[in-house]
Amino acid sequence: MATDVPAGWYPDPGNPAGLRWWDGTNWTDRASQPSAATTAVDIDEEARRARRAQVALLAAVPAQLATLVFARLQFADFVDQIREFDGTAGQIEPEFNASVWGAASQLSGAVSMVVAVLFLLWFSRSAHNALALGLPARREPAAGVAGFIIPVINLWWPYQSTSDLLPPGDARRPLVLRWFLLWVVGGLAGAVVTWVAIFVGGGLGWVLLAVPAILTSLAALAARHLVGEILACHAGLAQRR
What we know:
With about 240 residues, this protein is mainly α. About 65% of the residues lie in helices and about 10% in strands. It has helices spanning about 45-85, 100-130, 140-150, 155-165, 175-200, 200-240, and strands at about 10, 15-20, 25-30. The protein has a 3-stranded antiparallel beta sheet with strand order 1-2-3, with no helix packed on it. The model has no long low-confidence stretch (mean pLDDT about 85).
């Protein structure tokens, strides 16, 4: 192969059914074999799911901002109810989800849930395509999807499983780490800061919410970009088969 061909995965000269990594100068010993246990490559379906996920991830930005705002208002309203409750006969007991902010928070949370479902539908198809293309994976697609949902392991499995959607050594793999750190740190910051902001009066409470708001918004945009890059990678690999 000519030395001006860029580094990447190409059909293995010794086994056209598999792929081998070309480092830009020579063939390396890194090779992968398409899995017979997975479904055939379906780039068109991955592209359809990618478009839906990308649209949903754009919608996730205002939805996440609304969730943070409504959550702070909901918690603050609940705290005010507790402070005002003195046990007087006929007085309504405080109810956490009784306020209008509780209903608004649940609605914005439902939007975020739809976004998560569309993202995971894309991830599942993309993981099946990655296996069919011969990319090495640490776990099966179903286990990869479950890793986003199950507590504790969702602190590292999603990063590993999403990285496996790209070839080892691919220059786009750092995008996975950037997205994952924004997602995890933004989620943890949102949980902590929302509680802290309840007891911080005035504008300072809203300023504190800016931290998780920015992180979660950047995470959604990073995920949207990542979906497009992974789709482009898979489409390129499929054309070389």
